[in-house]
Hints:
single chain
Amino acid sequence: MARKKIRNTSTFSLSFLDIMSCGLGAAVLIFLLLKHVVDAPVTMQDPQVMSEISLLEEEILAGEKDLVRIRNTMSDTSDESVIAQGLARRIQDDIDKLQAEIEEIQPESDNNVPGLKAKIARLARQKRALEAEIPAGNKAYEFTGDGERQYLTGVRLGGENVLILVDASASMLDESIVNVLRRRNMRDEFKLQAPKWNRTLAITQWIVANLPMTSDFQVLAFNDDVKPVFGDQVDNWYQVADRASVASAVQGMSTVVPEKGTNLHKVFEAAMAMRPKPDNIFLITDGLPTQGGDAPTSGSISGRDRLRVFNDAVGLLKGVSVNTFLLPMEGDPYAAAAFWRLAIRSRGSFVTPARDWP
Length: 358
């Protein structure tokens, strides 16, 4: 019987294979762990560091906004300085021209000399005012509103004789009829605190602050009567370059108490009687008139009758543009369309400003 051969297995060879397999597996595991660590996103868990990062980002955004605002301000100031210098040169040329005309006046024309000299003196005052304003801006009165809207387009603020008409009737106390009836029975100090009236004062100040330095101006408050906000004469004109007159006008408006009805016929009649006549009118009101012309003197007045009274009053205006700032009053549906037509016919403008303007 054949004898089976017994194969001898080497213990060393098996151990070597085990070691190699374990080593290869460990190397693969280490590679996978390292790759996972590299690919995993790094997250910042420290809340203090995150809050500091957010604060820095906010400061960067605020700084960028301030930088844009500063650049815009510098650009506006530069433009105003160039305009003022140009006006000063133009006025100086006019002065030189008038002086040359005076030198050529014949003896028989001596009666014209005082008028020419008066005009030269006025131009010289305007030139000095412009030169004084070149480094500091071109406004006789600084006004900055509380709202976010500090601009207004489409309104012509120029003119040689600018007239500002402010409706000081009882309806300027509030936007609703019920609140007007309630406020008009209060004491004057409470009337002066009415939000709608304070908006009216702010709009008036904005207009005064943006008038050209070369213009003359007057501010009239009206209800069923017409009176200047300072001084005694309705037909007096004051120079915008005269800061004292501008300050007096602003101060005088703060003492006007809204009361009584609205008579546009009387205030337009007074405007057309001024000499020289205004060439640009700013009207701040809240609706159509309730008095004037052939309006009923007692009882209520319908919307159609108010429109008819308005059209009669507008017929008094000749050769002057009218810019209306309307603060709407309830129960007056014809007002917006009527003042819009007035703006088109007179080549003026019509604005219903936002509540937070100026």
